Amino acid sequence: xxxxxxxxxxxxxxxxxxxxxxxxxxxxxxxxxxxxxxxxxxxxxxxxxxxxxxxxxxxxxxxxxxxxxxxxxxxxxxxxxxxxxxxxxxxxxxxxxxxxxxxxxxxxxxxxxxxxxxxxxxxxxxxxxxxxxxxxxxxxxxxxxxxxxxxxxxxxxxxxxxxxxxxxxxxxxxxxxxxxxxxxxxxxxxxxxxxxxxxxxxxxxxxxxxxxxxxxxxxxxxxxxxxxxxxxxxxxxxxxxxxxxxxxxxxxxxxxxxxxxxxxxxxxxxxxxxxxxxxxxxxxxxxxxxxxxxxxxxxxxxxxxxxxxxxxxxxxxxxxxxxxxxxxxxxxxxxxxxxxxxxxxxxxxxxxxxxxxxxxxxxxxxxxxxxxxxxxxxxxxxxxxxxxxxxxxxxxxxxxxxxxxxxxxxxxxxxxxxxxxxxxxxxxxxxxxxxxxxxxxxxxxxxxxxxxxxxxxxxxxxxxxxxxxxxxxxxxxxxxxxxxxxxxxxxxxxxxxxxxxxxxxxxxxxxxxxxxxxxxxxxxxxxxxxxxxxxxxxxxxxxxxxxxxxxxxxxxxxxxxxxxxxxxxxxxxxxxxxxx
Length: 580
Description:
By secondary structure, the chain is mainly β. The two termini are 29 Å apart.
């Protein structure tokens, strides 16, 4: 698994699916220079994406966990749900069995047969009238769907809704490849594909509610999609009460996404991270989800990204103002969470069981960034140079002139991590299950070429890094912390995270946080569990600065306060650590 300051092999973010290296160059040329930054992430343009969906799936990892989660899904409180309003929409009905594309689609008995025909019935451009594509129960093969859902832009009073009208999961489709849409809501649909099930680029105000996104293939053999859900260069993206699984790399990948929430969802069966947020993403909330069976790890803030796929002014840190709270995470080979190139990022009140066996339970490292990210196993010299490469290099040069942090070449480990807070989490690895190396992995500072990259040196992972109020039961009492040693951060002179401060402010192998019945999906504290009486730490506001000048990052800092729990109930005060 990953080592200090580096990334795991399956966690390459943002540039290509597992369906072939050449797809990226085709995508860039197909869309042209005007949309180059979005096209760089298109890998679903190959002919294999036309395959009909299949319901077969396979597990990414072999564990003792039940094949199906027994944990009740996290609750999405009304105050956090995306507000769709009550727009007036025109229905376009679709019935894959009894429909006819010559029908108008205005009623169920006059339904069209294909989703492509329904999409074609919606006018191009910005809408003044909303539409609902009403999918009746049945299977909609890939070749009956739009090649690209693009350039039809709803507004709040006139959105585009795609809904499984006979109940969640009753309408089964192939993959969605979405570009340049606005106010686009997908409700209750089940999408199955051996490529990315839902890919959205240059989108705004997208809602996925009660959907199932299922990657098809054996992820352990690098079969199936590189990501099950991929969102890039987009704003206001919301995932609620979804089930997302089956990826040869990361199940969810957010790349250059500003403002979004992933709430009350189940994310599992991936050969990389369950969830990765990177590329200058900002104000992302990950709350009350269950994550399991992801080889790379649970929740990643940062990792590696492509400079060319970023969006100004977010050209510095990999992540700004992200919060991951009240999540239940279990059965992971990799860590519960990791931060690499993150700024003002909070991991708080999460409960983890059987995590980090391959190396450590938490990692805080330095992020990597290149102009583009080569596919896993390839080198720069092994990728054919095309006109798309030249255009991409020009874009990276432009971003460098604007003050962005990066390079015109292959990835360098240069993006510092600053102001990460790790508060009030519970990590319980029972007897017989422990990390291989240490509790944590915190990278040491490293020099950077400021003149070439704009990154102020040295790049460190432990600036204002705080561990407080956490209960960790993992390995023997003398198990190494993973800080303060050779090639490690949080040395003796660091005021916020040296070994003595971490031992003082956290219960590490001193309190066994007994859970109700975790092997049966009950991760709440057991009655009279010692964790109930352990005092939690107060979470301070985000600092929201310093930022790389120029460019400055606009808007106010997100609110890091945690007032609810996994079940959506208000936390009693004083509260206790963990998600419940």
